[in-house]
Design brief:
- The structure is a homotetramer.
- Chain A is α+β, with helices and mostly antiparallel strands.
- Chain A has one domain: Hotdog Thioesterase (Thiol Ester Dehydrase, Chain A, Roll).
- In chain A, strands 1-3-4-5-2 form a 5-stranded antiparallel β-sheet, with helices on one face.
- The radius of gyration of chain A is 16 Å and the shape is elongated.
- Chains A and D meet through helix 1 and strand 2 of A and helix 1 and strand 2 of D.
């Protein structure tokens, strides 16, 4: 059980196939990821003040059942790996009304500073690192 | 006759009505606008080096005929007003194959620096100002 | 006082100016609009079953203060005009934490069937029409 | 050597990190994919008339160097697998001016009809199948 965020499918997110465009699931992953970090107990603002960023270096998604306009969507975000300068999260996308799994995916990130240079996150932000460590599933 | 740029409608840009989503025309306006500025004879790089930005303060669009997937689209960009810290451009969106007018719109901008503070563009960038002045239609 | 919907600014919605891209406000208008129609007492499903669509024929937006990543946004949707085959809505976009008005805009729509042919909505869907009529501000 | 399509990075496609948002690379894959199919010698219109669609069932992307606003981008699309009801394409995203590889990815698709039911493409569209077969790399 990770961290659940809900969104409602927007008309904008559909395409002429009548379902959500495949590239838009990555926006939902991002929404889930941000909520995940927002809910940390340690000072996340500390990261923002220092302009720590988490660019994606690898991502992927499998599509099982298409999401449709107006569907309530649950984004289940899990931390699965954390080492050195890297972090990996996994996502499951559910349709809320019947709990159907629609898609699943992952993102791998590297911790960088505002100049997009990798930083040793473990060393620089020990409190957050430790909290994250305890959340790995 | 303004400045013509062409784009091809992407699947991503359609919605489940089978036509281009209304909000995506503003991206085409932006594409036309950037090409418009790129083609200036005076040093546009000068603006970039100094981080001059042109945030939109007002925009609008009228939709006449829906654009569809794979349509070749012509964006006709015209400069219509230039004064003090402001500039206004107009756009016409045509379907290339039969020259049908699909939509028309405008954007009003203010010249700002990288801190989003308005600047007196006329004074600071006289050459570009003069060139723009000669292009008003 | 219209109908309030809230959204949180997504990273995807920002651009390199560090604020929400101007074209993305139209997606928020759409979100507000759909919630507005969802909350009607008369059977909105009736419209969906019959594939009544509301393509936008005109829109506009004024930008006052830029929305930023992670801002909680309130979309205030009001019905302002309803006649024959047309309907007009107005939107106000507020930042929730300090109630600052960020932008305001409108959309004009025409009622069409699934073949995008205009329909006389007043005649065909009297109940919904009457309810909408009572909501004009 | 696959099939090359070029696009120019739009302001819309950037995010506040100052680079192209990770989810937008999938739109470029789609652009490359459509051009790939457009260039087939056999009648692609035949597919459209019969409403053959190619929904994505799996995708992934690795990001090497960030694409930036106004970059000219080359999308290199290759067909790598074709069997039964499935097809897989690979994409390489280059920055045109210095031929730097920015990202690489893939999409797996299933051939379906307009009701999103899988179809035996090999059997139903032998000509196109054969042409595709000869293009596998």
């Amino acid at each position: 059980m990770g961290n659940i965020t809900t969104v409602k499918v927007r008309y904008k997110e559909t395409d002429q196939m009548g379902v959500v465009y495949y590239g838009n699931y990555f926006t939902w992953f991002e929404v889930g990821r941000n909520e995940f970090f927002r809910k940390l107990k340690s000072s996340y603002e500390e990261l923002e003040v220092e302009n720590i960023l988490l660019p994606v270096i690898k991502t992927g998604c499998e599509y099982l059942v298409p999401a449709k306009f107006d569907d309530e969507i649950c984004i289940d975000t899990q931390l699965v790996k954390l080492k050195g300068v890297r972090i990996e999260l996994r996502y499951k996308i559910y349709r809320e009304k019947d709990n159907t799994l629609l898609a699943k995916g992952f993102t791998e990130h590297v911790f960088v500073d505002k100049n997009l240079k990798p930083i040793n996150f473990r060393k620089k932000h020990k409190d957050i690192w430790n909290e994250l460590q305890g959340m790995i599933e």
